[in-house]
Amino acid sequence: MVTLTLVRYGDLPYNIDYNPITGDLLFVHAKVLEQLLLRGWTTIDRVFRIPATLIQAGHGQRDLARLTLPELKERAYLKRELGTYRKDRLSAFVLAGRYTTKCVQEFVALRHLRRHGVTVPSPLALWLHRNGSRVQAALLLEELRDYEPLDLELARARRALRERPEQLDRIACALAEFVARVHDALVHDPDLFAWHVLVRASRLGDDSICPDDFALIDLQRALVLAWKPCCVRRARDIAALFASIDDDCFPAESRRRFLAHYFETARPRDPWRPIFPRVLARRIARWRSRRKVREALQLQQDIAQEVSEPSVTQAS
């Protein structure tokens, strides 16, 4: 008999303060409520017809678009799922909490992390429409301003940080505290890639860099656990981060500094700490065999080369 679920899936829990308005609009932030109602964006059909200036990513069933509406003062991103089917419906029936859709799962993770002091985009609206086992959903997110992807910022600052190893140590410690803050909030994010971790622009070279200078996006696969993540889940998250950063931008010494500070902050008495590096190494090797990770590493190398070329030309 199942008496305790280890994972809380992304259905809207009963204790969350959401405000059903009308139609499929289950949650809306007060600052955009009037604008959405005036446009009649209360059903999934209307949301799918919202004009978007730029489709940034997506495939046949999901897309990500940036909204630039004159009346919407907040810049926003719209995630739409055209038709998601429930996965593993037997487990969803047995366990407390049923898997619905990635938009809902991300919404729950965002609200949870914000309550625990982790910088993430603010949800502005959530739409959900069920038709049997088929689920359609959309999520409107506020854009984080003055933030850039961590991997690209490290690539641009690679040459400068090489001459300041003490600053790399500060970055490693601040980043370790940020990841520890995510795990202490009982969140496991298997997509903790460096391009999903944002850093405030121009803060990498600042001596006072801190965990509050980092942010996290794209939490559609994040899970809120019943207790803190185990060794394997921690290794999977950190491996995704390490694998997606080029070794020249974040060298081995910085990674060791990260791990040392992470365990001091998150789990000083972790019994699995001696075997953690081996588990982490296997996970990193697995991630680096993926095409998207190899492409990200190549992009970092190209950016670092472009930044260093002017200096080489000037010196010659």
Q: How are the SSEs ordered, and which strands pair?
A:
Layout: E1 7-8, E2 25-28, H1 30-39, H2 44-48, E3 54-58, E4 62-67, E5 76-85, H3 89-94, H4 102-115, E6 123-131, E7 134-142, E8 147-149, H5 150-156, H6 158-162, H7 165-184, E9 187-188, E10 197-200, E11 214-216, E12 223-225, H8 231-243, H9 252-265, H10 276-287, H11 291-315
Antiparallel strand pairs: 1-12, 2-6, 3-4, 4-5, 5-7, 6-7, 8-10, 9-12, 10-11
Helix pairs in contact: 5-11, 7-9, 8-10
What does this protein look like?
- The chain is an alpha+beta fold and 316 residues long.
- The chain is 41% helix and 19% strand.
- It is built from eleven helices and twelve strands.
- The strands form three sheets. Strands 2-6-7-5-4-3 form a six-stranded antiparallel sheet.
- A hairpin with an 8-residue loop joins strand 4 (62-67) and strand 5 (76-85).
- The chain is globular.
- Residues 1-9, 88-99 and 312-316 have low confidence and may be disordered.
List its salient traits.
316 residues; alpha+beta; 3-stranded antiparallel β-sheet; globular; disordered N terminus
On the 0-100 scale, what is the average pLDDT?
A: 82
**Got a strand count?**
12
Order of helices and strands: EEHHEEEHHEEEHHHEEEEHHHH
Helix content: 40-55%
- Low-confidence sequence ranges: 1-9, 88-99, 312-316
Strand order in space, largest sheet:
2-6-7-5-4-3
Which overall shape is indicated by the principal axes computed on the Cα atoms?
globular
Rounded to the nearest angstrom, the radius of gyration is 21 Å
The major sheet is characterized as: 6 strands, antiparallel
Roughly what fraction of the amino acids lie in strands?
A: 15-25%
How far apart the termini lie comes to 74 Å
Discrete helix count: 11
Query: Which structural class is indicated by helix and strand composition?
Result: alpha+beta
Oligomer: single chain
